[in-house]
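A note from the maintainers: we've had questions about how concatenated examples are separated. There is no special marker in the raw files; a new sequence line simply starts the next protein. For clarity in this README we add a label.
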Amino acid sequence: MDLTIAVVDDDNVILFLYKKILQKAKFDESLYTFNSAKKALDFLDSLPDNAKPILLFLDINMPVMNGWDLLEVIHQIGFEKEVHVVMVTSSVDVSDKEKAFSYSKVIDFVEKPLDELVLQRLKLRFL
């Protein structure tokens, strides 16, 4: 897989856990973790428009800039990077799931914690 992997969650323990899970599943070739959506956005903005595709694991509930705010930015006209978003959240609210899939770049919505089954499904998609 020729992807840049980015994980965004405000919980550093979750970031550590997800990093280990992603490494074990061989999703670690270009793996970046961010404890805020703003830091992730700064990173995305720093990439050239022709960068390799980005697989973004995104939490919804974060302070300052939440996952919805980041989704809004990456869906704006002029944001040219290829981004595929997997929402990884503790939310069990059906309206959150419906809202997530209203964004064209969202490819999956999973409840925390991220697990290997989800990653295997993603591998099949991106092979």
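[label: protein 2]
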Amino acid sequence: MDIGKRMKELRVLYGLTQQELADRAELTKGFISQLERNQNTPSISTLLDIIQCLGTTPAEFFANDEPEQIVFKSQDYFKKTDDENNKIIEWLVPNAQKDIMEPVRLTLKPGGRSEIYLPHSGEEFGYVLKGTIKLIYGRRSITVKSGESFYFNSSKKHHVENISSKNAVILWITTPPSF
């Protein structure tokens, strides 16, 4: 871990100048500058003082908040085929059900349909990549074509159906995860 870089990130995030951090930690501005440029190494007690002055804990300071993986390729996708409903669901981000949103690619064969989702708190966005679908939202029935998108609050019963004779492919993002 680059301690100097992390110190600077937090200092800037909290809107502190090097002088303000130095004053809080009872150090010199020059010493803070050297630490941020990795030209000097603080003692453990000095580092703990700086971490406290930055309003964080050692655990938070040293935590690696970077996601392990941020780019996902087709071999990472999890795919489920549902022959009964003529559909294929591909989870584009593995384990996204534990996150705030869940993106899937839904392929509906002719006559295929999604599950019927009961009202719940959340929002949903879909983009029709290929084909034509019918979106049933509450009592409304709306045709959505390739290149068009939909967005709604999940407070009404809803689902989609493929109304064409060719496959329909939808990028569907839900929050919270519901697939």
